[in-house]
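Entry 14. Ran structure prediction on the chain below.
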Amino acid sequence: MQKKRNIIEFLREHKTVVLILAICLFLIELEVFALAVMKSGRKSRLNILNPSGEVIYETDGNSKMFNRLNRSQSTDC
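Output, structure tokens:
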């Protein structure tokens, strides 16, 4: 019982420190959540394979280089 009173007394005496720690922990959690939201979602990858099925080039699916290559090949036909 004495230990419980000591903890309560400590919290009452150091309200500012406890409040600052609580705010810091909240901001850290908010940052972790924001990073998780930014990294989540659909991920598209573009793999270019050789005839034996090995990956010879890999990039994200929104590659500008692939769009340029695809356009130049379609005009050649």
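The CA atoms of residues 27 and 33 lie 10 Å apart. Will compare against last week's run tomorrow.
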